Prior knowledge:
alpha+beta; three-stranded antiparallel beta sheet; 10 helices
Amino acid sequence: MYRWVSISRLQKKQLVSSFSNTATHHQKPNLPSPPPIRVSLTESAGRGVFATRRIEAGQLIHTAKPLLTHPSLSTPNSVCYFCLRRITANSSPHQLLFCSQDCKHNSKIFYDVESRADWSAFHDYCRSQGLKYPLLAKRLACMIISGAASADFIDILQPESLSSEMISQMDEGFGLLRNAFTKADITDEQMTYRLYQLSLTLQVLSRQWYASVLSRFRINAFRIELAGGLYEELLSLAAASIEAEIAVGNAVYMLPSFYNHDCDPNTHIVWIENADARLKALRDVEEGEELRICYIDVSMGRDARQALLAQGFGFRCNCPRCLSGD
Ligand SMILES: C[S@@+](CC[C@H](N)C(=O)[O-])C[C@H]1O[C@@H](n2cnc3c(N)ncnc32)[C@H](O)[C@@H]1O
C-alpha cells in the first residue's frame, strides 16, 4: 500500500500555497475543488503523484505556479524577467524587463538585490559553458538574501547524488556568484540565514549550499517552451527559429517535481503564455493510478532513453515500456 509522505511544517506550507496558487486560476467563485491528486510513496521511484479520482483524457489536472524562474540568456528583454511571458514592443512599451505591474511588483524584493550586482562575468561563464542551473541558483540566492524565500525553500525536492568530481566542476560558477555579491557590497552577514525553528545558521553562499541547490535543479528544473502566443509572434519566431533558442527559460515547481517519469506517459505538462504550468491527462486515468510525465524525448529507442535518464537524472527506468524492451 502507498503511504502518505511525511513532510515538515514549512514544506507543508509551501505545498499548500502551491496548491492554492494554482486553484485560484480555475475555480469559479464559491466552487473550490482541490485537484484530483495526492503525493504518496511509490514502490520503487520515491514519491509520486496519484489520481484520487478518475480523470478523463485531455482534462486539465491542475496548474502550478513556479517557485522560481530565470530567463534564457539568449532571450534578454524579450521575455518577462519574472513569469517568462514573451514581451513584444506592443505589449510592454515602457517596461523592458517585466510584462506587467504585477510581475514587476512580485519581483521587487529579490530584483532589488539582483540589480545591485554586476552579473557579466557570471553570465559569460554560463553562456560559454551552456549552463542554465547556475542562473536558477543566482535567482534563488537573491530571493534568500532579500528575504523573499527561506534558505530551505527547495529542500523538499529530491537531490541528485553528486560525485566529488561533479562538485569540483561547480567551483568556478560558485566563485563567480560569490564574487558578484561581494563586489556589490553584500556582506557575509547578509548572506547568512538563520533557521530559528531549528536553531541553525546557514551560510547561503557556501560551496555546500551551491552544490545542494544545483543537485536539486539538475533533477527538478523544467525547461520552459511556450506553446501559445499571438499568430504574428509565432510567425516571426518561426522565421527566426534557426538561430533563436526555443526555450524562454527555466523554472522550478513544487508539485510538478513530484511527478515521476514514464516512457509512455499518461500526463503531460504544457506552458501556454508564461511559466505557469498546466498538467493535462493524455489518456483516461483510473482512480489510484500513478500520474507520470516524460522527462526526455520518448521517440528515441530504449537504449538511448535509458542512457539519457541514467546520465541526466540518475535512475534506471523500469517503466512498462522499458521492461517490454520497446
Ligand atoms: C523529479 S523527481 C520525481 C519525484 C521523486 N520520485 C521524489 O521522490 O521527489 C525525479 C526522480 O524520481 C525518480 N524517478 C522518476 N521516474 C522514475 C522511474 N521511471 N523509475 C525510477 N525512478 C524514477 C528518480 O530518482 C529521479 O531522479
